[in-house]
Design brief:
single chain, about 250 residues, alpha/beta, TIM Barrel, 7-stranded parallel beta sheet, 10 helices, about 40% helix, about 15% strand
Length: about 250
């Protein structure tokens, strides 16, 4: 539903029948709201979450690298805890900036972040992306296993799974206890020339593309939380996009 504001997002999610929402507390795009810089908005978000009964699956997004000052993440964790969020979503640096030799330092920073999150009742989920240093499911498994914290898991975005060379067989071989959630979306089987642009602007609603989503769902345990992650350029309202997302999800699950 972005780039709408967080209160509009919450209201649209409730109206469409969603049970939970993910909130972008730290801006990624120029159109994102800098929530953590606005105490009044933070209070309004907490109040609206309480009023609606909506839960918060995750907050995003922290770029974790060997130079991360974890103390700077603590206010995000504090607010996420206040909202009752389950997970902090993190990613690695872009592939051009990622240094494999620094991976042990990255693991230490992730462990430090996971420990701080655990003190506040949260988990940390690492999302892999083909254009980042942690690019594949195998990369994420290796790093999460090295972090070795019970609250450290993997966020699996369907588009990134397929665009990085993975697929349904990858999930069948995976220890599902490593997963925090699965983000559903769809796309043509053939990747575009610019996979980063596709990820940010050109995804399709689940079931509206060519990815084998039903087979993928069959490979997952029933208890894995499912989210819809479909950023796209659209002039439609947040309410309309939320309703369309719920309709697509309902059809996929029938």
């Amino acid at each position: 539903m972005l780039p709408c504001g967080p209160l509009e997002q919450i209201d649209a999610a409730v109206a469409a029948g969603f049970q939970t929402v993910g909130l972008r507390l730290l801006p990624v795009m120029t159109t994102d709201v800098a929530i953590m810089e606005d105490p009044a908005l933070m209070r309004a978000i907490a109040e609206r979450i309480g009023q609606t009964g909506l839960s918060v699956l995750d907050v995003e997004v922290v770029r974790v690298n060997p130079s991360l000052d974890v103390s700077g993440v603590l206010p995000v964790l504090d607010f996420a805890s206040e909202l009752g969020a389950r997970w902090l979503a993190v990613t690695a640096d872009r592939s051009d900036d990622y240094r494999p030799a620094e991976e042990p330092a990255l693991v230490r920073k992730l462990a430090e972040t996971a420990d701080a999150a655990a003190e506040r009742g949260l988990g940390v989920m690492l999302e892999f992306m083909v254009f980042r240093g942690v690019a594949t499911l195998e990369d994420a498994v290796r790093i999460v296993s090295a972090v070795d914290r019970p609250n450290m898991r993997i966020c699996l975005d369907v588009l990134h799974l397929f665009r990085s060379g993975g697929g349904v067989d990858s999930l069948r071989k995976l220890d599902s206890s490593l997963l925090a959630c699965v983000q559903l979306n769809d796309a043509p089987i053939a990747p575009p020339d610019d996979v980063q642009r596709e990820a940010r602007y050109d995804r399709l609603l689940p079931g509206r593309g060519e990815l084998p989503l039903r087979e993928l769902l069959d490979a997952l345990p029933a208890e894995i939380p499912l989210a819809i992650e479909v950023p796209a350029e659209s002039a439609e309202s947040a309410d309309k996009r939320a309703r369309d997302a719920m309709q697509a999800f309902t059809e996929l699950m029938q």
